[in-house]
Amino acid sequence: MTRSTDILATALAPTIWGSTYLVTTEMLPAGYPVTLAVLRALPAGLLLLAVTRCLPPRAWLGRAFALGALNFAVFWTLLFVAAYRLPGGVAATLGALQALMVIAMARGWLGTDVRPGAVAAAATGVVGVAFLLLGPGVALDPIGIAAGLGGAASMAAGTVLSRKWQPPVPPLGFTAWQLTAGGLILLPFALFLEPPLPTITQTNLVGLAWLGLIGAAATYWLWFRGLARLDPGAVSILGMMSPVTAVALGWLWLGQALTAVQIAGALIVLGSVWGGQIANRPRPAGMNPSARSGQHPFQES
Fold first, then answer.
1. How does pLDDT run across 246-286, given as a tens digit for each residue?
2. Which label site among 130, 135, 272, 284 has the fewest CB atoms less than 10 Å from its CB?
């Protein structure tokens, strides 16, 4: 498959994640963030384990739980805290900083070059998300800001380490390990910190099925598959597709008005995503800095 096909397939994941807010607010009971995170992650992870019949070897258990915590348990928990304590636009703008964090972490953990074009594209994308979602008179809560930054850092670390720790199994098995581990980490917190769920309705079941089967199992398979094939910086900036989808669904489904500033913000985000893919294109072997210095491009330093 070509790189363009891999980019488009990976971009489907954050595009679908943009429906999470609509599904959560319109189809699920309010006030159960950890319980709903468990119901999103654990059944999907167990289903994928049953399909793949691939359990992590003992040597991989620690990494599986570390990645499950970073990509799901910690990230989703802090995401909900930020969403409860901050306006949605502020929380999403803080989350967009993840692309810049990935560039820095990939440099430290993977030795990836910091490309000015990639940094510029990520920073421009953050501005676009702010235009898309921020409104006048925004209230800033310190705990919410800390949660938003912590959530972005958690997902960024999970993204880079998912590339660094490539297991000897297909991406679907890797996804199953992480979803199951993340759900198991969250389960005791859901049982002891939140009241029991009310009676589940048919609408609730449809919402949970969408978030679990599509919004978790299918999309994170695409995400981890992309991380195995593409540069982490190229993948992370695709995450900015999520707020664009969220705003588009609010306009199409809920009848929310779109302002000229929001339309401009959406165009800026789309342009930054496109620019980020160009900036993160693999360099020809002859242009690799390590090759110019006499080091074999695949030789570890």
1. 889 888 888 888 889 999 999 999 999 999 999 999 877 55
2. 284
Distance CA 121, CA 291 (A): 26
Looking at residue 298, what is its pLDDT?
27
Q: What is the 3-state secondary structure (H, E, C) of the chain?
A: CCHHHHHHHHHHHHHHHCCHHHHHHHHCCCCCHHHHHHHHHHHHHHHHHHHHCCCCCHHHHHHHHHHHHHHHHHHHHHHHHHHHHCCHHHHHHHHHCHHHHHHHHHHHHHCCCCCHHHHHHHHHHHHHHHHHHCCCCCCCCHHHHHHHHHHHHHHHHHHHHHHHCCCCCCHHHHHHHHHHHHHHHHHHHHHHHCCCCCCCCHHHHHHHHHHHHHHHHHHHHHHHHHHHHCCHHHHHHHCCHHHHHHHHHHHHHCCCCCCHHHHHHHHHHHHHHHHHHHHCCCCCHHHCHHHHCCCCCCCCC
User: How far is residue 104's CA from residue 102's CA, in Å, rounded to a whole number?
Assistant: 5
Distance CA(161)–CA(150), nearest Å, equals 16
| Sign, CA torsion 228/229/233/235 | negative
The pLDDT assigned to 295 comes to 36
Q: Is the dihedral of CA 37, 41, 44, 47 positive or negative?
A: negative
Give the burial class of 127: count Cβ atoms within 10 A of its Cβ; 0-12 exposed, 13-18 middle, 19 or more buried. Answer: middle
Residues in the chain: 301
- pTM over 0.70, yes/no: yes
pLDDT beneath 50: ranges in the chain? 288-301
